[in-house]
Amino acid sequence: MATTDGAARVSTPRRPTITLPPRSAAETLFADGLSPGPLTMVSNFFSENADFSSFSQLLAGAMASPSFSADNSSSENVGGEKFGFRQNRPVSLVVAHSPVFIVPPGLSPSGFLNSPVFLSPLQSPFGMTHQQALAQVTAQAALSQCYMSVQIEHQASSLAASTESLTRHQSFDSNTTIQPVHTMISEPESSTMESSEVSQSDRKSLPISAAMDKPINDGYNWRKYGQKQVKTSEYLRSYYNCSHLNCPVKKKVERNFDGKITEIVYKGQHNHEIPQSNKRAKDRIDMKPNTTNQAKPELRFQGETEMSMTNESSHSLPGRDQASTQLTPPLQVLGSCCTCGNGYTEVGTSKLTVSYRTVTEPKIVVQTRSEVDLLDDGYKWRKYGQKVVKGSAHPRW
DNA sequence: AGCCTTTGACCAGCG
DNA sequence: TCGCTGGTCAAAGGC
Fold it and tell me: Could you check: is the Cβ of residue A86 within 7 Å of any atom of nucleic acid strand B?
């Protein structure tokens, strides 16, 4: 990142560097605008091991964590669900990558380059827990939705060369869905105007495909093998294969009418490391700070300003012991966060999915074989209702 | 030349 | 058995 950072800064006045605090200081982190709501949910997959540096590693660590293993069994007991993307990941498989994962789903590389949610190498081994690390990634996924449409136009031309080099390692090796269905983050003032200026017609005139056909430059190479308009989502769904030889990983990407990614589902696990021999990989490597930074990564926003990070979500993470949802899966939960009063969380363990939605954040759905940890997302949720949802045998609060 | 996207057709699962 | 739906295939074309 260091090498092309300069180019990126041409259009981005500054990139505030955020050093991730220890988990106990998560509030500091999120005070900068990265609301952790959906993040801690994801983060709870992870143990406290700090030996992973990439998203893949984080996930691998999460999957290998005792809790996950236990949850696996428990989840299977829950109903022997036919989880849509039950992975066949070898237990021993550890995807070791460089400690950089950057581009979130839903943001073109160029968009992400200037995105305030841009991340550089993880802090994980140095004061950042896996929860936080993954939370950051998820935050990128969430927040990027807000900036994508705005930034595409402004950055496509000037940053095309440098963007891909910034992309790295968002390796969702688990069955992970990031589903920012509702982009509700209050747009920063700096981008609100731009957003409004980017009219619908402008957006339509945009080569959306160019900006979004590669929604996630996660370090892997993807080959699109199909695209459909699925009825259940109304959105256009694209199917991608990892282009690596014999790699079984696939992903589905759903986009709304604006071309914004609304859902990403990863299936399977890479049986290889992130390719580094191709140009993109090379660029990404070039973008990596350096080996020193790899060893001592820091969280860095590539965004324009802190202002871009300014949203109304001051959703800070309370202590995990404050998690109040007492759930007996499978069920779904709707409620508002006691911390910020925003949004709700819903847990559908019958499908082993968890989705969070707050007023200020996109919806994020994580599919996993584990549900127990998801119930303790570190937030306090206030139950404000309960009912049986049509089509569901389970109560909803 | 190689890899990618596009897109209609095909297939399998399900009710 | 049939129709619907989601997922995949594969040919064609583009970069």
Answer: no
pLDDT tens readout for residues A148-187: 333 333 433 333 333 333 333 334 344 444 444 333 333 3
Which of A169, A173, A171 shows the shortest CA–CA distance to A87?
A: A173
Are A379 and A345 contacting, i.e. CB atoms less than 8 angstroms apart? yes
Which residue is closest, via its CA, to the C1' of C8? A226
Q: Answer with the residue of higher pLDDT: A388 or A260.
A: A260
- Three-state secondary structure call for residue A75: helix
Q: What is the 3-state secondary structure (H, E, C) of A148-217?
A: HHHHHHHHCCCCHHHHHHHCCCCCCCCCCEECCCCCCCCCCHHHHHHHHHCCHHHHHHCCHHHHHCCCCC
Q: How far is CA A375 from CA A43, A133, A147, in A?
A: 12, 19, 30
Residue whose structure tokens are 């909803």: A396
> Which helix (H) or strand (E) is A6 found in, with range?
helix A2-11
A228 touches strand C (CB under 7 A): yes
For chain A, give every domain's residue range.
224-267
Residue type, A17: T
Q: Give the Cβ contact number of residue A363 at 10 Å.
A: 22
Q: List the A353-358 sheet strands across, edge first.
A: A344-348, A353-358, A361-367
Rg, chain A, Cα only: 19
The answer for residues whose C-beta is within 8 angstroms of residue A178's C-beta and 6 or more apart is A104, A105, A106, A138, A141, A142, A172, A263, A264, A364, A365, A366
Between CA A154 and CA A131 the distance in angstroms is: 33
Q: What is the distance in angstroms measured between the alpha-carbon CA of A230 and the sugar C1' of C5?
A: 8
pTM: 0.40
